[in-house]
Amino acid sequence: MDNCIFCKIVAQEIPSYKVYEDDKVYAFLDISQVTKGHTLVVPKQHVADIFEYDETLAADVFSRIPKIAKALEKAFPEMEGLNMLNNNKELAYQSVFHSHIHLIPRYSKKDDFSIHFGDHTKKYSPSELQQFADAIKAQVD
Ligand code: AMP
Ligand code: ZN
């Protein structure tokens, strides 16, 4: 896609620190290096976000993740964990609109990375939760 920075990286029209490539995906270091080894995995095919995936593309992309995660673990034995993150749309912090999965190695609780999960366990009644589940269930293809 024209003017897509990640399409240009995939096409090697602009440089990247490539860590893995095959016919379906391209993986490279995130320029921001939230932690050492922070890697992005992108489908070679341009899709903006998860809502544009079909099952085949999802299988192509997500099936590559474990081998890249294991490579990070071997490359950085001091790694003690890994966060995988996929932001979809601006409100959810997506800033590059070519879908990508962040692999963020974790080395310490003092890493410059955090996720806040608010605890709203008591916010909804069982019947409201059942309504949410039913609404979603009705839409799954
Ligand atoms: P997101 O905010 O989830 O859309 O993540 C986009 C990521 O792309 C950010 O973490 C950026 O640091 C990263 N990024 C943007 N441009 C480049 C680039 N040219 N090479 C590597 N990473 C990039
Ligand atoms: Zn693209």
CATH class equals Alpha Beta
In this entry the ligands are: adenosine monophosphate, zinc ion
CATH topology: HIT family, subunit A
The percentage of residues in β strands lies in 15-25%
Backbone CA Rg? 17 Å
Total strands: the figure is: 5
CATH homologous superfamily name? HIT-like
How helix-rich are the residues, as a percent range?
Answer: 25-40%
What is the total number of structural domains? 1
Overall description:
- The protein has 141 residues and is an alpha+beta fold.
- It has a five-stranded antiparallel beta sheet, with helices on one face.
- It is built from four helices and five strands.
- The chain has one domain (5-116): HIT family, subunit A (2-Layer Sandwich), CATH 3.30.428.
- Bound molecules: adenosine monophosphate and zinc ion (ZN).
- Adenosine monophosphate binds at residues 5, 16, 30-32, 87, 93-96.
Task: For this entry, give a set of tags.
single chain; 141 residues; alpha+beta; HIT family, subunit A; 5-stranded antiparallel β-sheet; 4 helices; globular; binds adenosine monophosphate; binds zinc ion
Q: Quick gist of this model?
A:
Helices cover 26% and strands 18% of the residues. The chain is of the alpha+beta class and 141 residues long.
List strands and helices in order, with pairings:
Elements: H1 5-10, E1 18-21, E2 25-29, E3 39-43, H2 55-62, H3 65-75, E4 81-85, E5 101-106, H4 126-137
Antiparallel strand pairs: 1-2, 2-3, 3-5, 4-5
This protein binds adenosine monophosphate (AMP) and zinc ion.
Residues 5, 16, 30-32, 87, 93-96 line the site of adenosine monophosphate.
